[in-house]
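Researcher: We're teaching a course module on how sequence relates to structure. For the next exercise, students receive a sequence and then see the predicted structure as tokens, so they can try to spot secondary structure elements on their own. Here is the exercise chain.
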Amino acid sequence: MRKAEGDLHGLDRWLSLYDTQQFGKCIRCKNKININRLLLMPASTRCIHCAKL
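Model: And here is the predicted structure for the students to work with:
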């Protein structure tokens, strides 16, 4: 249940950023998150590089 709530929160965040300049940017390095990563994991807040750290 906690995972589902976390996923829902991530999707809400994604939707709230959709028409802003922050949409699709990594919260750590501010680089663009690869579109394939966003399509696979829309709640992603970090690029693949920062997610590995």
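Model: If you want an answer key for the exercise: The helical segments are 2-17, 35-40, 48-52. The two ends are 27 Å apart (CA to CA).
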